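Entry for the shared binder. Reason: the reviewer on the internal report wants the predicted structure included alongside the sequence.
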Amino acid sequence: MKGKILKSLSVNLALLFCFFAPAVSAAEEIIISGSTTVLPIMQKAGEAFMAVNPGISLAISGGGSGNGIKALNEGLCHVAMSSRDIKSSELEQGSARNVKAVRTAIAVDALVPVVHPENPITGLSAEQLRDIYTGKIRNWKELGGLDENIVLISRDSSSGTFETWETMIMMNEKVVPSALLQASNGAVVQIVAKNRKAIGYIGFGYLDASLKKLSVNNVEANTETALSNTWPIARELYVFTNGAPAGGVKKLVDYLLDPQKGQQAVKEAGYIPLQK
């Protein structure tokens, strides 16, 4: 009898607790997709952002600038990361789905040509880079290097990094079909770091000791040259949202632009804050 009373009391207390306990709302999830160049910034800032905003969770993935903008237009993500501006055709595609992409610059990047550390070449001109990638120059000895065929590493066409390279270096000439196309900055780093004959190009934040960065037109890639636009392959990095940022997305964008928060994460990720 005593056991039945205690059991009944426990059940009643449990029900009473459930009735009066404050409701716990599910976390707001923000889906972020796109540029692998912007990805390290978002990962670095996102971790700190979620720590101070426990009611918001971020789902972050790469895939390329074009894929991120496509996902935004199709309603598959809330934020598209991009290392290039949006195209008019993409704006039209979004408009057909009642999506109005709004751009926010969050960082500055210097796109940097890189080679293996054992390659004796230290710098090239923009014209020489173009001749390499169109196939006019095929051997490093033509540039004062070793007698070895050049192994070309390029980003694929869905990449904003590829489109920046195509516009600023290739002058819209075509990359030779023999180039090995890679889906991410990280993949380019891995290949060039292991192949003495290779050349590639990556975002500033991916530079490390496994690579040698090349000067271009006798200018070195660094924070000062990127911000002053004396580096010939400097660009802004963006996030795009459907309309002006609102709710949790606005909190995230504001965090990314905060000089003491998101912009510090930009620096820690190896990129260049909007203001020095």
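Summary line for the report: Residues 112-227 form a domain with the D-Maltodextrin-Binding Protein; domain 2 fold (CATH 3.40.190.10).
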